Amino acid sequence: MGRKKTAYELSRSQVSTPHDVVSLFWEITHTYRPQLSRVFDLGAGDGRFALGGRYETYEGIEIDPGQKPSDKLPSNAVIRYGCAFKHAGTGFDACIGNPPYVRHHDLEHSWRDRIAARIAKETGVSLNRKCNLFVYFIFLALLKSAEGGIVSTVVPYEWVSRPSAEPLRRFIKQNGWHVDTYKFTESIFDNVLTTASISVIDKACDDGEWSFFKLRRDGNISPSLHATGSRYHVLTYENRGALWAKRGMSPGTQKIFTLTEGERVHAGLSRKDVLPCVTSLREVPRNVTRLSKAVFRKHFIDAGAKCWLIKSYSGRFSSRLHVYLDSVPERSRGTSTCMSQNPWYKYPLFNAPRLLVSTGFTKFGPKVLLNSIEAHAVGSVCGVYTDQRRSLTRVRDFLVKTNFEAQVVPHAKLLKKIEIRQLNAVLNEFIRAECGDG
After folding, report:
1. C-alpha–C-alpha distance, residues 134 and 165, integer Å
2. Taking Cα atoms as reference points, which of 229, 107, 127, 205 lies closest to residue 169?
3. In sequence order, what DSSP letters do the residues of 311-373 get, joined into one string?
4. What pLDDT digit, counting tens, does each position of 265-285 carry?
5. Which residues have CB under 8 Å from 340's CB, separation 6+?
6. Domains, the chain, ranges and CATH?
7. Dist. CA 213–CA 222, nearest whole Å
8. Residue 14's pLDDT is what?
9. Strands 381-386 and 355-358, bridge-based pairing
10. Using CA atoms, how far apart are residues 46 and 17, in angstroms rounded to an integer?
11. How far apart are CA 61 and CA 86, in angstroms?
12. 321, 310 in Cβ contact below 8 A?
């Protein structure tokens, strides 16, 4: 249970790029190189990136042998089957394509470590093991492209700011290469939340500049001052101070460890078997400032939200809870978190935070609630803590008046996310302002 996916299974995570986006990709890429010689496609799929480009030869690599090439594949294009990281060719005029997006959790650790070690040996860069698969592919493209070549890929826009991709950005900056990133203003992939971009790294240009653009699907391009798409820089990432944020608990899987009121009753558990918790603030109105008993009942218990965290963190609990845990199918315990706990249900319990903050939001900033009932933060809801006596109301007011939307890179078209260390930066700003240093 819980095994990592094979390379073949990971190949299924690659989503085919719509043909109109491929055409737009070539239109943008050819503004940098009107004519290309040798082109290498890092995740060829059916070879659709072989269509529409001006090049002498196209070579694609595809890991899935069941992915059949397009009938329209031109005569100067070839697709080979195998792992891109085992491909021997280098010196390509351009490395292109839509590399697979796979979260780091799903990468086989031995494969990940082996490729990271290879990249470190060839670049001198130590990768963050929490980066997603497409970051490895961008490194590969930089290694396989010629000294004055170009890397042009359809990748998640998040790479321009996420800490996990910082080693890649640092490597590019050390070499002084020019980067232009075109962020799509609308979703281009069905059922994929991540904001997509066409990112171009020009190794022939050594000005070291990064430029950002908004790209509509009809081809309209408009410049952005910063990666955020606003007049603000991306929020910095800072360590904890006198006030600090901590990510929500991950007890194993919310399906097992968090219950609605109906699920609690159905499982035969009493209120003594559970703790109040918050897994989402989505349905809480913005004018609500405090999580009181009345608010918890109305917007969580009566609303059927996941609001009870089972007390399996302790070695001593009721026979009722024993019966519930014994009823959980073994296949449902196969998460990496459950398998790392002994026994599988004994998770570490965090202290209840003073403030509850939703890490995801759609407009302006996240919802923030004063935590009057000592509910535990779980999943996408994080907590704010402090060891000092201070007005938490003022902290909350500061957070809800901060324009987070203008200072973060969008996760998806409407969804924005605040990282824990970015929230720490805002909390540190509050402390500086409170002390008169801001």
Report:
1. 10
2. 127
3. -TTSS---HHHHHHHHTS-GGGG-SHHHHTSSSTT-PPPPPPPSEEEESEESSSS--EEEETT
4. 999 999 999 999 999 999 999
5. none
6. 7-224 (3.40.50.150), 243-434 (no CATH)
7. 6
8. 63
9. antiparallel
10. 10
11. 10
12. yes
The residues with which 119 forms a beta bridge, in sequence order, are none
User: Which residue, 232, 130, 230, 243, is CA-closest to 183?
Assistant: 230
For residue 134, give the amino acid letter.
Answer: F
Phi, psi (degrees; rounded to nearest 5) at 114? -65, -45
Burial 202-223 (b: 16+ CB within 10 A, else e): bbebeeeebebbebeeeeeeee
Q: Report whether 373 contacts 296 (CB < 8 A).
A: yes
Strand partners, 154: 198
For 209-258, write each residue's pLDDT tens digit.
999 999 999 999 999 999 998 999 999 999 999 999 999 999 999 999 99
Positions of E strands within 262-315: 274-278, 290-291, 308-310
- The predicted-structure confidence for 376-408, as pLDDT tens digits, reads as follows 999 999 999 998 888 899 999 999 999 999 999
CA-based nearest residue to 77, from 48, 42, 35, 43: 48
Q: Please name which of 89, 57, 61, 62 lies closest in space to residue 74, comparing C-alpha atoms.
A: 57
Contact 379, 348 (CB under 8 A): no
Supply 429's token pair.
Answer: 């700003």
Q: Retrieve residue 107's tokens.
A: 């990468």
Closest C-alpha among 300, 261, 263 to residue 381: 300
Helices (H), 162-243: 166-175
Whose tokens are 């959980």? That residue is: 328
Closest listed residue to residue 80, CA positions, set 69, 92, 72, 70: 69
Which value, in Å, is the radius of gyration of the alpha carbons in the chain? 24
Assign residue 399 a region (left: φ > 0; alpha: ψ between -120 and 50; beta: otherwise).
alpha
Cβ pair 92, 142 in contact under 8 A: no
Q: In what order do the strands lie in the sheet with 258-259?
A: 258-259, 308-310, 274-278, 376-377
